[in-house]
Amino acid sequence: MSASLFQLVSREATAVYYYYDFNEMSAIGLLVMMYPILCKVKYETLHLAFKTKELWIQIGFSVIMNWIVAPFLMVRTAFPSVGSRLKI
Questions:
Q1: Three-state secondary-structure class, residue 18
Q2: How many angstroms separate the CA atoms of 40 and 3, rounded?
Q3: CB 58 within 8 A of CB 66
């Protein structure tokens, strides 16, 4: 198999940003995305928010969707594109 020119160039360009098999650019991107949201949290009133039933319903829905439904959905959508190359 031969790699395309784009794959070779992008691999060499991003190789500098890896630290123990972790891409530093991903960490910087995550921090840039999360910082504004975390700054708006009023931590002193957070305990009051967790007393409401509506918030616990939203948290439960989020956990079910993100940890149960989404992984199966991702696997289901990945198989048409990489299913033949997958070695399970």
A1: strand
A2: 45
A3: no
